[in-house]
Design goal:
With 136 residues, the chain is mainly α. The protein has helices spanning 6-86, 106-135. The longest helix has 81 residues, at 6-86.
C-alpha cells in the first residue's frame, strides 16, 4: 500500500518512543494494528460485494439475452404454426370452391395445426425405425 522502507519505519518508531514513552508505545502500536486490520477487512469486504454485484449484473445480462433469444424462437415457431394453420391441407376429392363458408376460430386452427404436426412427427420416427430394421 505505502512504499515505506526499513529506515522510515525506524524513524517512526523512534519518534513514537520519544512522544509516547516506553510505557504507552506498545499499547499504541497494538491499537494502530487493530485499526489497520479493521480498515483492511472493511476494504476487502467492499471489494467482495462489488465483485458479487458485477457478477450478478453479468448473469442478469446473460439471462436477458437468453430470454430474448427464447422469445424470438417462440415467436418464430408460433408464426410458423399459425402459417400452417392458415393454409389447411387440400383434399383432392373436394374442389376448392366447396370450402366451408366460415373459417374456424384461431384457437381451433392452432390446435388443428399442432395435431397435424404431431401426426407428422409421430409418423417420421416409425419410418426411421423401419429403415434401421431393414438395414440390419
Amino acid at each position: 500500500m505505502f512504499d515505506i522502507g526499513f529506515l522510515e519505519l525506524l524513524i517512526i518508531g523512534v519518534v513514537g518512543l520519544l512522544v509516547l514513552g516506553p510505557e504507552r508505545l506498545p499499547k499504541a502500536a497494538r491499537t494502530l494494528g487493530l485499526w489497520i486490520g479493521k480498515i483492511k477487512r472493511t476494504v476487502s469486504g467492499m471489494q467482495r460485494e462489488i465483485s458479487a454485484q458485477l457478477e450478478a449484473e453479468e448473469l442478469r445480462q446473460k439471462l436477458d439475452e437468453q430470454q430474448k433469444k427464447l422469445d424470438e424462437g417462440l415467436d418464430r415457431v408460433k408464426r410458423d404454426v399459425e402459417g400452417i394453420a392458415d393454409t389447411p391441407p387440400r383434399d383432392p376429392a373436394k374442389p376448392s370452391a366447396e370450402e366451408a363458408p366460415s373459417s374456424p376460430p384461431p384457437e381451433q386452427r392452432l390446435d388443428d395445426a399442432l395435431a397435424r404436426a404431431r401426426e407428422t412427427a409421430a409418423d417420421e420416427p416409425d419410418a426411421d425405425a423401419h429403415k434401421d430394421s431393414a438395414a440390419r
